[in-house]
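[step 3/7] inverse_fold.run input=structure_tokens len=326
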């Protein structure tokens, strides 16, 4: 090991040679490839302002606890939880993707126990690239790229870089779509990204048609509880996500202010009856408080006066593969 006095006596050529030797040693000892995951709690700043520091910290802790458990399960680890999110590293993209899918599923289940204003909403990015790591620190340009991939995702979305996508198994690649090329801030070369659908799209309706009014409502993708009823506003706040209407005012009065809700679980929508007024799902009468599955193509009849038809765009594995250029 050269001391500082010896280094001071080196010539320019000797210093450059030493630098090259150190660079090769650094890469040999600490160079690796990792799947890198950034998760971000959406709207945390506004949540802290609205509900205070204690509630804000509890919201972030819910996220941190789940991501830590899922990272450990799939052989990864959380590197940092500074700010309102987390940075994690995994040996391969399949491990990172599997952890993210289970993270989002766990959050969706937990959210059903909270009012909408206290539900946890996360977005995420997954990238695969070269890093330097000693088992504790993980650093390199790929870390910056993964953070930027997360920054272009929308709430409730997992966005995956092309380098991560290319190493995913076919079963996960066919769940990816919305291919695009993003110019990411601080990244010199545009990056190809796509969305990994953590919910199986085939299990969920995306819209509902009210036969009597002809109105078609798109179902909000970022909500795990979607409420239906005739009331539009209550105490200055939206009362229902889908406000039901009928051309006949007398018929509309048979619809409750809050009639039913859809609960989004990993295996599909479930309808929960909130009202004592009638609801049938595919011809089956639903009792108040009962949960019944609502697969795409279902027909819900509300109080015998409204027929709701739930559907989704045609989308199979072949269509997904074509979208992402497989």
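[step 3/7] decode complete -> sequence:
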């Amino acid at each position: 090991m050269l001391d500082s006095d010896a280094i001071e006596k080196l010539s320019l050529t000797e210093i450059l040679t030493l630098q090259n030797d150190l660079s090769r040693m650094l890469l040999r000892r600490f160079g690796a490839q990792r799947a890198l995951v950034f998760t971000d709690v959406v709207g945390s700043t506004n949540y802290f302002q609205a509900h205070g520091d204690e509630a804000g910290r509890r919201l972030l802790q819910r996220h941190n606890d789940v991501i830590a458990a899922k990272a450990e399960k799939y052989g990864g680890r959380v590197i940092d939880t500074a700010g309102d999110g987390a940075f994690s590293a995994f040996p391969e993209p399949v491990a990172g993707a599997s952890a993210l899918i289970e993270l989002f599923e766990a959050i969706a289940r937990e959210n059903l126990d909270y009012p909408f204003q206290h539900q946890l909403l996360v977005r995420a990015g997954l990238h695969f690239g070269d890093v330097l790591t000693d088992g504790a620190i993980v650093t390199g340009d790929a870390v910056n790229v993964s953070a930027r991939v997360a920054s272009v995702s929308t709430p409730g979305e997992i966005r995956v870089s092309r380098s991560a996508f290319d190493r995913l198994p076919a079963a996960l690649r066919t769940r990816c779509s919305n291919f695009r090329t993003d110019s990411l801030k601080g990244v010199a070369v545009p990056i190809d990204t796509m969305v990994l659908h953590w919910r199986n799209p085939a299990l969920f309706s995306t819209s509902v048609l009210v036969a009597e009014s002809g109105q078609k409502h798109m179902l909000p993708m970022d909500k795990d509880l979607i409420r239906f009823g005739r009331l539009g506003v209550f105490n200055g706040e939206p009362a229902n996500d889908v406000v039901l209407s009928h051309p006949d005012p007398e018929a509309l009065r048979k619809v409750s202010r809050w009639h039913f809700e859809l609960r989004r679980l990993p295996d599909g929508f479930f309808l929960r009856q909130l009202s004592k007024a009638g609801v049938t799902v595919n011809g089956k009468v639903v009792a108040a408080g009962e949960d019944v599955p609502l697969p795409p193509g279902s027909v819900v009849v509300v109080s015998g006066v409204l027929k709701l038809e739930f559907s989704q765009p045609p989308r199979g594995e072949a269509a997904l593969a074509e979208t992402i250029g497989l």
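[step 4/7] annotate
The longest strand covers residues 122-133.
Residues 53-73 form the longest helix (21 residues).
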